[in-house]
Design a protein that fits this description.
The chain has twelve helices and five strands. It is α/β, with parallel strands linked by helices. The relative contact order is 0.13.
């Protein structure tokens, strides 16, 4: 099997990680392209002493670390997601955020995450705790949950409230989701794809985004429906069954880049 064939199954998830790290599909995908270009240019430099997925993320991190991604807050004078992130990054280290995403969202062990960012497993655990604590201090929001499975909805609602956020409602259909969003505008949407009446959470989110901008996290058993590489993909995507820590990390990251959230 060629190196390209070995890496292909992992690329959608590297794109997910890159988007979550940068807060932008365009910027995240640019780093992934640079990673692939580096591998094509020097295939002999690709780490072959580890699992291909680890080698891919390791190469990505080499590209990420060599780029000038941390600018001073207010650098561009605008109020977009990257500028919001820069202001918040002044109070949290990029290494902590990488450790958080690698373990909680991407599912790497502390040992593997340590290999990727050049830290010990113990350091990774400390960095994760530091990142969660700081991000939670900086953000809070009203959250709309779109989920038709009652037990899952209750679990997500508990996670959201435990993080200090408020739940505006739990919708089980597309129409109900849109109605609730219009009645009380949320600061964050957590959405399943397949809903109770066979309607689509994707369509519900499209309807909501047509009215106003809001960060969205998809939580689904069908990630392949969104990670196609052929259309705009969600910045934040969690696969069912999920870990509570994964949902917490995604919420923290989504709000981290959003201008509507305020210091807690």
């Amino acid at each position: 099997m060629s190196l390209g064939q070995e890496l292909a199954p992992h690329l959608p998830f590297l794109r997910r990680y890159a988007r979550a790290l940068t807060g932008s599909q365009a910027h995240g995908d640019a780093f992934v392209r640079a990673t692939l270009e580096a591998i094509v240019a020097a295939p002999g430099d690709f780490p072959r002493d580890v699992d291909p997925r680890l080698g891919l993320y390791r190469t990505f991190h080499a590209i990420w670390s060599s780029a000038n991604v941390e600018e001073e807050p207010g650098h561009s004078g605008t109020d977009g997601p990257e500028d919001i992130a820069r202001a918040r990054l002044s109070r949290i280290t990029p290494l902590s955020r990488q450790a958080l995403l690698l373990t909680a969202m991407e599912g790497f062990t502390p040992e593997d995450a340590g290999y990727l960012i050049g830290a010990s497993a113990e350091d990774v655990e400390s960095l994760v705790a530091e990142a969660l604590a700081e991000i939670e201090r900086q953000t809070r929001a009203d959250v709309l949950i779109i989920e038709d499975e009652p037990i899952i909805a209750m679990d997500i609602e508990t996670i959201v409230r435990d993080l200090g956020h408020n739940v505006t409602g739990v919708a089980v259909t597309r129409d109900e989701a849109v109605s609730q969003a219009m009645a009380r505008r949320p600061g964050l949407v957590l959405a399943d794809i397949q809903l109770a009446d066979d309607s689509s959470g994707i369509d519900a989110v499209k309807d909501i985004l047509a009215e106003f901008s809001v960060p969205v996290i998809f939580i689904t058993a069908f990630p392949e429906r969104l990670l196609t590489g052929e259309r705009p993909e969600p910045t934040f995507l969690i696969t069912k069954p999920f870990q509570r820590s994964t949902v917490k990390a995604a919420i923290a990251q989504a709000l981290f880049f959003d201008t509507a959230t305020v210091p807690a």
